[in-house]
From TrEMBL:
Main location: nucleus
Keyword Zinc: yes
Residue ranges annotated for the USP domain, each copy included: 151-481
Source species of the chain: Parnassius mnemosyne (clouded apollo)
SMART domains assigned: ZnF_UBP
Keyword rRNA processing: no
Reaction it catalyzes: Thiol-dependent hydrolysis of ester, thioester, amide, peptide and isopeptide bonds formed by the C-terminal Gly of ubiquitin (a 76-residue protein attached to proteins as an intracellular targeting signal)
Protein name (database record): Ubiquitin carboxyl-terminal hydrolase 39
InterPro entries: Papain-like_cys_pep_sf, Peptidase_C19_UCH, Ub_carboxyl-term_hydrolase, USP, USP39, Znf_RING/FYVE/PHD, Znf_UBP
A GO biological process held by the record: cell division
Family membership noted in the UniProt record: Belongs to the peptidase C19 family.
Subunit structure comment from the entry: The U4/U6-U5 tri-snRNP complex is a building block of the precatalytic spliceosome (spliceosome B complex). Component of the U4/U6-U5 tri-snRNP complex composed of the U4, U6 and U5 snRNAs and at least PRPF3, PRPF4, PRPF6, PRPF8, PRPF31, SNRNP200, TXNL4A, SNRNP40, SNRPB, SNRPD1, SNRPD2, SNRPD3, SNRPE, SNRPF, SNRPG, DDX23, CD2BP2, PPIH, SNU13, EFTUD2, SART1 and USP39, plus LSM2, LSM3, LSM4, LSM5, LSM6, LSM7 and LSM8.
Organism placement in taxonomy: Eukaryota, Metazoa, Ecdysozoa, Arthropoda, Hexapoda
Entry's localization field: Nucleus
Amino acid sequence: MSEITTKKRKLSVENGIDVSEPLPKTAHMQCPYLDTINRHVLDFDFEKLCSVSLTRINVYACLVCGKYFQGRGTNTHAYTHSVAEGHHVFLNLHTLKFYCLPDNYEVIDSSLNDIKYVLNPIFTPEQIKQLDFNTKMSRAIDGTMYMPGIVGLNNIKANDYCNVILQCLAQVRPLRNYFLREENYANIKRPPGDSSFLLVQRFGELLRKLWNPRAFKAHVSPHEMLQAVVLWSKKRFQFIKQSDPIDFLSWFLNSLHMALNGTKKPNSSIIYKSFLGHMRIYTRKLPPPDADDAAKIDLNSEEYAEMITESPFLYLTCDLPPTPLFTDEFRENIIPQVNLYQLLSKFNGQTSKEYKTYKENFLKRFEITQLPPYLILYIKRFTKNTFFVEKNPTVVNFPVKNVDFGDILTSEIKAKHKGKTIYELVGNIVHDGTPEKGTYRAHVLHTPTQQWYEMQDLHVTSILPQMITLTEAYIQIYELKQD
């Protein structure tokens, strides 16, 4: 063997591939070790990196113990593991090919297709259409029954604020249908060196795992998705520290939109197609309260004239009325209640609200000019003052079905919508506890069965729709009724 060939062989073995001897052509058909595979320990939710060297290059999963190791050639971690532990069947996590080590031959067997499908679930257009009609439960490998799409997400430490957003977005049909087919976004070209597209890929992988009808376990760990979030938010959102779901939702939708080459045009990405609405904002500057009468008289000047601006929105912020300061006659604080339509009156174009800045005061009116197919409402419960964060416990009374948002539109704009202003609730996020130490849970509607489920991390339970209206709703997603 020449010196150059020896060097080539040495390099390839170091990278985990022994190319010195070609794989036998016939030896791959049957493997005597397939009965050693333990499907109960297989978990492909975690980062695909070697458990010894922590490298991401050429990683194999041991199908006997579930651990990840690099390489296949002699002196690699996978090879050493196979000899030391007697574990022989490995899966390349990138190419999805099975190998038997240390003999180093490829295993081709149709009985292994279920493992391949769990690692990378694939949906055809016909299967995606059927998701809206499927009422059949699936069985995990340990016998647990689960409904595809209604699957618990693991809380690694304090990422429940992420989990509730991801669970609700997984129920938004256009978004789900788009991300279940990798072909929809595989050809999007990004600038060289830009890897923010990883966020799109990880979200697609997570949705495919959530809707997988042939999963090995009835829950999903969003580990890779959260790693991408931490990386691309520059540690603004972490899974070891609680954050505000509305901040995460706003950042996440805008980041996905940008990564999908979205522009300011309404239909430039699936995010804008689903959630983008338009409003008109009327702003009038108020004279300072301590100004003298001469300054107050000149309200007709250009400075105090009303300005009109057009603004797009991804969600609407609803302000709760302040909580009562005093107890009632029985010396008890009755929890205040408010109707949803009362909160929405802010957007009817007639109700004015004062906004104070450091120097100036403004009076603003909001008028919705176009409703999106999916409307997100953010009910502002937390107010920050100089010393601490306060939570408003007011209960919002809202209908779950047939919510007519046309009532807040002007007759001219309502006519443009051609009667399509009736919405139904599909996702509801609730905050429990104090502002600092509270937790989040989500209520989602399974459309085919019309059954509501409550999801708090790994706990998934069915719930009556009447119970949802009694909770302290924080973020809601409404779907436009098409028929």
